[in-house]
Amino acid sequence: MSDVLKALEGAAPDTRRPLGEILDAVRFNEAGLIPAIAQQHDSGEVLMMAWMNRETLMETLRTGRVCYWSRSRGKPWRKGESSGQQQHLRAASLDCDGDTLLLQVDQTGPACHTGRRSCFYVTLDADEARVTSEPMIDPQTLYGDKTPH
């Protein structure tokens, strides 16, 4: 863990540090990415997990519109650019280890490419897996023939 993050462990509420100093301490993986969990700001519902790099995190913080890094496309992915189902940032937090982001967002419609509100719609238990929700919108309506994964 970086000295910067270690110092924040004992910091008083409302302690402030320059953003660049904190981003330099973030533990991006070997591909330069960090997992970002999107949570609906008012309900607490966990919507999805995607990846961000420093560039997409900075764009998100600057514009308020959530931008991830698409590993499959190898480029920035502005949530909703093809489906219209955007995420608008309400707050962003870094975990204590500096290796995961939590984004409080205002999600327009479904967050999942399956047309469901949340990507977490398969519940697992000791004996089976169960689908827990229906699509809000047919993926064909959102994406036509180009459904992302």
UniProtKB/TrEMBL annotation:
Q: Which Pfam families match?
A: PRA-CH
**Which Gene Ontology terms cover its molecular function?**
magnesium ion binding; phosphoribosyl-AMP cyclohydrolase activity; phosphoribosyl-ATP diphosphatase activity; zinc ion binding
Q: Where is it located? A: Cytoplasm
Coarsely, its chief localization is cytoplasm
Recorded GO cellular component terms are: cytoplasm
Asked whether the keyword Amino-acid biosynthesis is assigned, the reply is yes
Q: Which PANTHER family match?
A: HISTIDINE BIOSYNTHESIS BIFUNCTIONAL PROTEIN (PTHR42945), HISTIDINE BIOSYNTHESIS BIFUNCTIONAL PROTEIN HIS7 (PTHR42945:SF1)
Protein name as catalogued:
Phosphoribosyl-AMP cyclohydrolase
